[in-house]
Amino acid sequence: MPRTDVNEFKQLINGSTRILALCGAGLSAASGLPTFRGAGGLWRNHEPTSLATPEAFAIDPGLVWLFYAWRRHMALKAKPNKAHYALAELAKKKEHFLCLSQNVDGLSPRASHPTRSLRLLHGNLFDLKCFNQCGYIEPNVLRDPLCPALAPAAEDYPPDQTMPLLDPTIPTPKIKLSDLPQCPNCKEEGKASPLRPGVVWFGENLPDGMLEEVDDWVEEGKIDVMLVIGTAAAVYPAAGYTQMAKARGAVVAVFNPDVSARAGLGGNDFFFQGDSAYFLPKVLEDIIGEVNVPE
Ligand SMILES: [Zn+2]
């Protein structure tokens, strides 16, 4: 059984140099962002996974953009929580800390997590990139709505009313390709191409060079601690990183409200059952001090 003692873990992490973190959806749970797993998971009458492919975008870019415009709007309404700020502070205090996040919600960047220590494995909802793959990227576009055609995804309704966009009986507005954001590079060359969300879709590779960078960091030497936050250590891709870190000597600490997330942990590892927004500031307090969330 893994250890659960906060003070024991504090001693370990206080004296640690090389720290790796892997974050999943649970990191943003305390920010109130809806996750698709568990809750029936449909968006209108679509499986969200069926909208997250280049093929779906090629067939109906307006529909796919409405889905992502809605997710951008939800993410912008949410605020980074204490766990995001705690990790951002850890990055400022520990030079050899690398944080991998599977979240596309932009909350770690908005908590001012230093870019040098943050790798967004699945991209960012707020980056725009060329669908034609000419290489054009516009990072961190927080404008909401992104363009007039996507305004129906950026409306707020009282809690007792369903947003028309989310009601599958109401047809979605028809959006012309030319009403979506366009790639300025391709336009200059006389080829029109829409911009798409800068997230990694099913069947796509992770952003260029990112895996190599992570591998290089891992290869540099012993890893003292690996934090697995809001995702299960035994499920891929977390499992792959956890194994790599263990092979480099890391003690693994899992932060998760779900007890099944401790699967695969040994007696020298740690398991903190609960919200990472509660546990992370607590176990890191000697290093980062008190975590303040700006109003
Ligand atoms: Zn382009």
From TrEMBL:
* CDD domains per UniProt: SIRT5_Af1_CobB
Alphabetically ordered keywords of this record:
Metal-binding, NAD, Transferase, Zinc
The UniProt entry annotates the active site at H122 (proton acceptor)
What Gene Ontology terms describe where this protein resides (cellular component)?
Answer: nucleus
Specify which residues bind Zn(2+) according to the UniProt entry for this protein: C130, C134, C183, C186
* Record flagged with keyword NAD: yes
Provide a Gene Ontology MF annotation, just one: protein-malonyllysine demalonylase activity
Domain Deacetylase sirtuin-type residues, every copy = 1-295
Q: Which PROSITE patterns match?
A: SIRTUIN (PS50305)
What does the sequence similarity comment in the record state about its family?
Answer: Belongs to the sirtuin family. Class I subfamily.
Name-wise, this protein is NAD-dependent deacetylase-like protein sirtuin-5
The protein's organism comes out as Pseudomassariella vexata
